[in-house]
Amino acid sequence: MGGLLAARVLADSYDTVTVVERDVLPDGPEPRRGVPQGRQPHLLLARAAQILEELFPGFLDELVADGGLVWDDGDLSKFWVSFAGHRLVRDRLPDPASVVNYYGSRPFLEGHVRRRLRGLANVSVLDGHDVAGLTATADRRRVTGVRVVGHDDGNETTLTADLVVDATGRGSRTPVFLEQLGYGRPREDELVVRVAYASQPLRLPHDTLQENLVAVCPEPDRPSIFAAFACENDTWLVAVGTMAGIEPPATWPELLDYAAGFAPAHVLAAVRDAETIGGVNQHRLPSNRWRRYDKMAATPDGLLVVGDAICSFNPIYGQGMTVAAIEAGVLRDCLRSGERDLPRRFFSASAKKIRVAWQTAVGSDLTLPQVAGPRPLSMRITNAWTERVLTASETDAAVAQQFLRVVGMLDEPSALLRPGFVLRVLKAGRRAVAEQPEDSVAVSQTWL
Ligand SMILES: Cc1cc2nc3c(=O)[nH]c(=O)nc-3n(C[C@H](O)[C@H](O)[C@H](O)COP(=O)(O)OP(=O)(O)OC[C@H]3O[C@@H](n4cnc5c(N)ncnc54)[C@H](O)[C@@H]3O)c2cc1C
Question: Distance from the CA of 424 to the CA of which of 202, 303, 376, 413 falls in 20 to 30 A?
Answer without folding.
Answer: 376
